[in-house]
Amino acid sequence: MNVLYIHISSLPHVSGHGVSLDLIREFRRHGHDVYIVCALEKDANRDTYMTEEDGCRILRVKIGKNKKAGLIEKGLTTILEPHRYISAIRKYYSQVKFDLVLYPTPPITQVKTVEYIKKRDGAKSYLLLKDIFPQNAVDLGMLSKTGIKGFIYRYFRKKEKRLYKVSDFIGCMSQANADYVLKHNPEVNPGKVGICPNSAEIIDMSVDEETRVKIRKKYGIPVDKKVFIYGGNLGKPQGIPFIVECMKAVKDIEDAFFLIVGDGTEFGRIEKYVSDSRQGNLKLMKRLPKNDYDAMVGACDVGMIFLDHRFTIPNFPSRLLSYMQAKIPVLACTDPNTDVGKVITDGGFGWWCESKDAEEFSRLIRSINQTDLKPMKENAYTYLINNYSAEDAYGIIEKSIKQ
Predict the structure, then answer these.
(1) Which CATH code, of 3.30.565.10, 3.40.50.2000, 3.40.50.970, 3.20.20.70, is assigned to 2-200+389-402?
(2) Where in the chain is the domain with CATH 3.40.50.2000?
(3) pLDDT of 64 over the 90 cut
(4) Residue 175: other Cβ atoms inside 10 A
(5) Contact, 111 vs 118, CB < 8 A?
(6) Count of other CB atoms within 10 angstroms of residue 120
(7) What is residue 172's predicted lDDT score, i.e. its pLDDT?
(8) 29-36, Cβ contacts within 8 angstroms, sequence gap of 24 or more
(9) What was the pLDDT predicted at 82?
(10) Residues 6+ apart with CB under 8 A from 327
(11) Half-sphere exposure of 249 (CA within 13 A, CB side)
């Protein structure tokens, strides 16, 4: 089977690890011919080109600026991106007939590319629904349903509905995610909506005691305290003002240490607080290379997830998987609409509180500091094996296609 994977941003080498790469390699491992089309951003200073990596053909398409771009520039890039993808596919993949096209959201504007492949090749289409746009932008106040922003919202909402219509199958991240799609899009056939969660290759990324001490000393992290790490994007979806309130609430907990690693549009707000407060049990670091970051996670004790409390859509952050691979339990602070907290608590590998109660966050930290984490660490890894393996995700997709 010839499989086309459409990715909206840049991808590292196929041999690397991540939600997309692990799934791509699983298709390759099962003998399928995998073709990828992904973005090559403007600041890469290269024109569109194709290469072969670990048996996969990957087409990197030059687009406009997307990361660290202003709203207008980013919007134009998003709108024009599918036209550039189609042009590149016509040029480089003209002799390939695709049987299946896989594509995650965001963005929904890639519907044009999917329609093109389906019409040209008669391919089956499978949407990996990782985010629900434009409602997420409405929740955060970036769009509205009235006024000028309402016009933009309606434009993208039509694109969203069109994407659901053209998709033969819709794989949602969780049950709450699937329920939301069907409730707010009653025209969608429930038979094509299922659960295909974020997945990862099952790799034990935990570290032994000697390595743990070595890594902590390398980055100036205390070796005698429980270390709580947040790693990933620092933008509006994470609710940065609440994270700051949480850090204020735990500043006097001497036997806990908080590590924030990442970057994003709101990095400066966290940076300012860290600089102004000089909080002794808090450290902020810029994003690290993936291998270094993965090792650092393994040297910590608890992973943290933050989502803005205004979300009405049920997000399910993929960074959960890196914590589980490292065998560390998880503290999730989210809106009440996502079921990620329920998954964590029911699975016995973490805690949850609503992301508008910094005092509850502080109470949980104090409780966790008195908890033996060893059973929860094992639960995290076992849950990963049983629910989020890339092999299982491949099986879900394959079963859908055969049906």
Answers:
(1) 3.40.50.2000
(2) 2-200+389-402, 209-386
(3) no
(4) 14
(5) no
(6) 15
(7) 95
(8) 30/394, 30/398, 32/1, 32/2, 32/3, 33/1, 33/2, 33/3, 34/3, 34/5, 35/2, 35/3, 35/4, 35/5, 35/59, 35/93, 35/96, 35/98, 36/4, 36/5, 36/7, 36/11
(9) 82
(10) 204, 205, 206, 298, 377, 378, 380, 381
(11) 17
pTM, entire model: 0.90
Domain covering 209-386, topology: Rossmann fold (3.40.50)
Q: pLDDT at residue 69 above 60?
A: no
Any idea which of 109-113, 222-226, 241-245 has the lowest mean pLDDT? 109-113
Quote the CA–CA distance of 314 and 179 in Å, as a whole number: 9
Span 324-363, pLDDT tens digits: 999 999 999 999 999 999 999 999 999 999 999 999 999 9
pLDDT mean over 303-319: 94
